[in-house]
Amino acid sequence: MRWDGQRIGADDGALPDLTMPDLALHGLLRSVRTPDFAGVTFHEVAAKSALNKVPAASSMPFRWTINPMRGCLHACAYCLSGDTGILLADGRTRRLDDVRVGDRVVGTRLEGRYRRYVTTEVLAHWRTEKRAYRVTLADSTTLVASGDHRFLTERGWKHVTGGGARDARRPHLTSNNSLLGFGQGDATAPKEDAEYRRGYLTGMIRGDAHVGRYADSRPGREGQVLYRFRLALADEEALDRSRTYLADEGISTTTFRFSPVSEKRREMTGLRASSRRAIEAVEALTAWPLDATDQWSRGFLAGIFDAEGSCSRGVLRISNSDPTIIGAITAALARFDLRHVVEDHGRANRVTNVRLLGGLPARMRFFLLTDPAITRKRSLVGGAVKSAAALEVVGIDDLGVVMPMVDITTGTGDFVANGVISHNCFARPTHEYLDLDAGRDFETQIVVKTNVVEVLRAELARPSWRREHVALGTNTDPYQRAEGRYRLMPGIIDALASSGTPFSILTKGTLLRRDIPALVEAQRRVPVGVAISLAVLDHDLQQSVEPGTPTARARLDLVRALRDVGLPCGVLVAPVMPWLTDSVEHLDGLLAELAAAGATGVTALPLHLRGSVKPWFLRWLASERPDLVGRYRRLYGTGAYAPREYKDWLHARLTPLLAAHGFGTPAARQADGAVRPEEGTYPRGSMAGWDADLTPPTLDLGPAQPVLF
Predict the structure, then answer these.
(1) Stretch among 120-134, 197-211, 300-314, 397-411 having the lowest mean pLDDT
(2) Which CA distances in Å does 311 have to 268, 353, 362, 366, 367?
(3) Helix spans in 15-56 (H)
(4) Which tens digit of pLDDT belongs to each residue from 458-496?
(5) Terminus-to-terminus CA distance in the chain, angstroms?
(6) How far is it, in rounded angstroms, from Cα 521 to Cα 498?
(7) Which residue among 254, 335, 464, 556 sits deepest, i.e. has the most Cβ atoms within 10 Å of its Cβ?
């Protein structure tokens, strides 16, 4: 649904009390702001589709969803530290912070039996703040990422962490995994300082330039000295770097055409200087240092590689006939523990090769450490994803802090980060595709499909539509406060019911009460399911921990109103908070209220504190209940979920209470075995078409929310 080309008319005068923002977006109907939603802009668009198909691999008990709005106030969890090195298509590495949309980077693609490195484009780039974890590999490569980030292992894609109610079942990294890629060990990119520049010019000029003094033999100038410096290269990148570095040292050069292109050679361009001052400066600049530094050695290797090096068919070599230069190369390689061998084939020209050992990991480490200028020698595009690097996971440490993080999305869905293959966030690019930023805009620029009802009716009228169950509220709440203005749900309900399509609604909002008459009418034609969430009965506690949400009394009234007219209503009692809402008195009182209101089913789940939720909740706890901070830190430790002992304890406490109030047990049996207490099930009545003999499917609460249920 691109906005480009979808303009269907000017402002039609709807919502006249809203003011137009200062935005220039093409193809949308209009953009509006209102004081009721501070900092949020709504973009009204004409959608091309309304029904969204759930991926076949999903465990959800439905195949179709409808999301009248796109965008979310919650940040994406797939992200890395901004100083992570991203491999560009030209072989260079750039900090993730500095990568931009449109940059060409290295991704991977399956081609036949092999996964290969390919060039791909950055489609989205955004920033957020997330709980940080450090992943350490056997070769000393480290990555700082959120717990939800995924890396490619020898056993497929795996998240950094798992181990919770929902995440225990998802694949996550363990010490038995090895990441795919080539790693980077403890290597870092060089600083482009004076020592690096001096080393680079030494390698380049000693390797491929001509510096000399000659006696002038022209008549009348006998005895005078001619000074000459000349450097000719076919690669403009190295020539440009050399010219710039010389200029930084106060050495002026002129450019000239050294040789034209031919069948066997590329065109070459040269630099030259002919003053005594310039030649003496070049000689001083390229003198061998008495004590080479790391930076000089990095620059020297980059310069001599640009001048005399090659990298083809997986072999990196540097060739020269000067024993002093060969010695300097081997000393610099040894300085960085880069294994190598000197190959003297006894050639008449005395040219000797220094060959790097260690395959792709060594080559990529060499390039990262030295940063040569000539990119054609650095690219690994087309190569197979295989190496002998020691990329076994040896540590996953919770750093205990929430920190700024960055992520990108590429055309291949992955990229190379610190030498390993990293997965993208799949949701953020939808906002980029709508010409919006994938970061803050994803949270504050909400897209409203104002024509969703008309489009839905057309889709439901197709002969191919099989009237399968459609779920609303699985991605974004259909009863967000903005629904009070846009009134999309009445039309959606009528369209589904009129077509004979069963549906269900999951919401936190009491705005659903407005549409009870429509739901009653719909239930006469099709099965309807409804679920709401209610976790805290105490008014003061509820308003403190869930500011701005409907009160417990309002939600109980909603349950009662739904049941009074014969509609089903399941309830999620989530999260149950240790020492706050897990007492027998609180749980018994809440379940009694829900039973009295007529709830058809209840699922209770313990508190989980994933991502940025944990520091937010602990700050709230320190302010409101400082006496519990120590207990929570001990209970949750460095993880996001309460330990097994607490979950078993809560399950044992809930079992008789749920049974006493007519809600059965908190974990029903399924065909494949017993459901663990923390997994839960969708509460009875929340899915369309259930009866007393049907077991609700396993509950998936989706990503962590920074506002408790």
Answers:
(1) 120-134
(2) 20, 12, 12, 11, 11
(3) none
(4) 999 999 999 999 999 876 778 877 788 889 999 999 999
(5) 31
(6) 10
(7) 556
Q: Are 246 and 253 in contact (CB under 8 A)?
A: yes
Q: How far is CA 296 from CA 328, 332, 339, 347, 507, in A?
A: 11, 9, 19, 30, 63
Domains annotated on the chain, with CATH: 80-181+385-431 (2.170.16.10), 194-377 (3.10.28.10)
DSSP 51-97: EEEPPTT---S-SEEE-SEE--SS--S--EETT-EEEBTTS-EEEGG
Sheet strand arrangement including 309-312: 309-312, 315-320, 352-356, 340-343
User: SS3 sequence, 498-539?
Assistant: HCCCCEEEEECCHHHHHHHHHHHHHHCCCCEEEEEECCCCCH
- For 406, 531, 566, the CA distances from 525, given in Å and listed in that order, are 48, 19, 14
Residues 6+ apart with CB under 8 A from 312: none
Q: Residue 385 gets which letter from DSSP? A: S
Residue 476: is it exposed, middle or buried by C-beta count within 10 angstroms (0-12/13-18/19+)?
A: middle
Length of the chain: 709
Tell me the Cα Rg of the chain.
33
What is the predicted pLDDT for the residue at 317? 96
Rounded Cα distance, 298 and 188, in Å: 11
Q: Which residues pair with 143 in a beta bridge?
A: 135
Number of other CB atoms surrounding residue 307 within 10 Å: 26
Looking at residue 351, what is its pLDDT?
Answer: 92
Token pair recorded at residue 360: 């792709």
Question: What confidence tens digit (pLDDT) does each residue in 42-101 have?
Answer: 788 888 888 988 766 555 677 899 888 775 433 334 578 889 999 999 999 999 999 988
Look at 6-10, 275-279, 598-602 and tell me which has the smallest mean pLDDT: 6-10
Q: 336: number of CA atoms within 13 Å, CB side?
A: 34
pLDDT in tens, 234-273: 999 999 999 999 999 999 999 999 888 888 788 899 999 9
Question: Would you say 326 and 332 are in contact if contact means Cβ atoms under 8 Å apart?
Answer: no
From CA 528, how far away is CA 201, in angstroms rounded?
75
Tokens of residue 653, six digits: 């406490």
Contacts of 627 (CB under 8 A, 6+ apart): none
